[in-house]
Amino acid sequence: MLVADTNACSFRAVPTGRGATIRAAVSRGVGLPPSIEDLYLDAPGPDEVRVVVEACAVCHSDLSYVDGTWATDFPLVLGHEASGRVADVGDGVYDLSTNDPVVVSLVRTCGECRACRKGHEVACTGNLSLNDRSPLSDVDGNRIPQGLNVAAFATQVVVHRSQVVRLPDGFNLVEASLLGCGVLTGSGAVTNTARVGQGDAVIVVGCGGVGVGAIQAARIAGAEPILAVDPEADKRKAAFGFGATHTVDPVGDDVAAAIRSATGGRLADHLLVTTGAPAALDGAIDLLAPMGQLVIVGMPGDDVTIDVAPSWLAATNKSILGSKMGGARVSVDVPALLDHHRAGRLDLDGMVSTTHPLDELEEAFGEVRRGEVLRTVILPNGSGDRDPADTPGVSV
Ligand SMILES: [Zn+2]
Ligand SMILES: [Zn+2]
């Protein structure tokens, strides 16, 4: 999730050879349901890959655009947490073959700029062709931007090679889609940004897909205790299954008292706010132990601010850290997550609450808006058939 500024595309057409006609969900304005349309997808250019999308999870960032929380220009095609199979590769791509199963992420990197060389791939400043053009056009020839660099609420996408990670053969592609954003972001906030260690007290505010990714990563890191904070009873119940040692209802419970109790009065070493709800930030800094970190992962609306007393921050050695995409390094972090999954430490299946065909995207958006699901996954080339009751601890 969580990139508010990356769908700026000019409309320079790129002549290509082997394009494709695809079906895509086009968002044409705030509050409007997406319309399913036939679009033309250019063939992949140099260092680009065309992928047949098998699964694309709905992320809160998609809703931030269609609901108007974040400003954007319309139309555009959203969907950025995806998996699929390679259909075609452009010049210079030698390590992928047709039909290879892959994760597709929104993090697009050049590998050569100063940020990339320092491992700060989410801050890449490289001048990649897809940053300036969209490979999508409608029946009238108008270019349609790729929302958040991918546009995977569609039967196929063209993305940069850096956005694709090869999966092991046989890996469940519905589960794999979560590695493209939600789990990548939540786990990255724990490992890359906060660098959570053994025995650290971790508070995760917001227990959707990103929050559960963070909870699982905190458990893998040996954090103790791990408090999950969410107003939804079903999500709190589910959080236990993913590694939370305590849960807190921010509406009905005294959050500060619960954190003091769980930590023996020590308070939080790391407090990760994975929701964009402004209330989640109220007083968060006061729940940190000395040397503690407030890690802001979820992105509230552009007009939200917080008050902090700088002297108090300095006197207690507390810090506030931003965590865009969990500081993800796709080529490193996705394989690490695959290793955790292979070893039974990372549960992806339990995070998929529902699946839907592309035609039901607006219904899936509704499930996310109402907080009913950990993750709902769109199957652009198939039919959704997973029942919410299949997800432990989540009912609708
Ligand atoms: Zn996302
Ligand atoms: Zn770069």
CATH architecture name of the largest domain: Alpha-Beta Complex
Q: Which fold name fills CATH's third level, the topology of the largest domain?
A: Quinone Oxidoreductase, Chain A, domain 1
Stretches where pLDDT falls below 50 for ≥5 residues? 1-16, 385-396
Mean pLDDT: 91
Estimated structural class:
alpha/beta
Please provide the count of β strands: 17
Order of helices and strands: EEEHEEEHEEEHHEHEHEHEEHEHEHE
Rg from Cα = 20 Å
Tell me the domain tally: 2
Overview of this structure, please?
The chain is an alpha/beta fold. It folds into two domains: 20-180 and 347-388, Alpha-Beta Complex (Quinone Oxidoreductase, Chain A, domain 1), CATH 3.90.180.10; 186-323, Rossmann fold, CATH 3.40.50. It contains ten helices and 17 strands. The strands form three sheets. Strands 3, 5, 6, 8, 9, 16 and 17 form a seven-stranded mixed sheet that branches. Strands 12-11-10-13-14-15 form a six-stranded parallel sheet, sandwiched between helices. A hairpin with a 7-residue loop joins strand 1 and strand 2. Helix 4 (182-193) packs across helix 5 (209-220). The structure holds zinc ion (ZN) (2 copies).
List keywords for this structure.
396 residues, Rossmann fold, seven-stranded mixed sheet, 10 helices, 17 strands, 22% helix, 23% strand
Q: Any chance you could write out the topology, listing elements then pairs?
A:
Blueprint: E1 20-27, E2 35-41, E3 48-57, H1 60-66, E4 76-77, E5 81-89, E6 101-104, H2 114-117, E7 136-137, E8 156-160, E9 164-166, H3 173-177, H4 182-193, E10 202-205, H5 209-220, E11 226-229, H6 233-242, E12 246-248, H7 255-262, E13 268-273, E14 288-296, H8 310-316, E15 319-322, H9 330-342, E16 352-357, H10 361-369, E17 375-379
Parallel strand pairs: 10-11, 10-13, 11-12, 13-14, 14-15, 16-17
Antiparallel strand pairs: 1-2, 1-4, 2-7, 3-5, 3-8, 3-17, 5-6, 6-9
Helix pairs in contact: 4-5
The chain binds zinc ion (ZN) (2 copies).
The site of one zinc ion has 9 residues, from helix 2.
